[in-house]
Write a structure and sequence with these properties.
mainly alpha
Amino acid sequence: MARRRPDLLALTAGYDAEEEKLRQAIIEQFPKLNVAPNYTNDTTPVYTAGPTLTISLPIFDRNQGNIAIERATRQRLHDEYQARLDTAYGAAGRLITELDLIEAQYQASLASIRRLRDAAAVADTAYAAGNLDERSFVDLHASLLAKEIESLKLEQTLVEQRIVLQTLIGSDIPTQSHGRPPVQ
């Protein structure tokens, strides 16, 4: 997940950049030595050439303020990264648990539909033979239709939860093809 989600990748890049700034601040606490050539002339044809040596001594603060700022910024980025990663793992675990529950409900709903379809087939025969009253026949078919609608809603919830999980982890997850019977 940490190698796929854009926000986590951005925080990692920010942390790496801050690490470089911290290294630079630590290097700046040491004396700077500059050696350069120096050429001068005046209004007469006298030319002077020689080296210039400059030493900068960090006597007072030795850049400790900038080092502390860079360390604090780096720690803040690390804490933000860890908090987002922990939140994402927790949310992914919760979504996977919910997906398992919804999948179980969906499978139970499909089993109910199969039983109701078998009962509806028997009821169709009985109604055609005049052995079943119209009210019972209509109630059975209404129950079958209601169960099919419930099954479709559960399937939609499954697809939506998979999309949410896919977005959360930043990757494709395999989708299961259900042997859902066609709605009649």
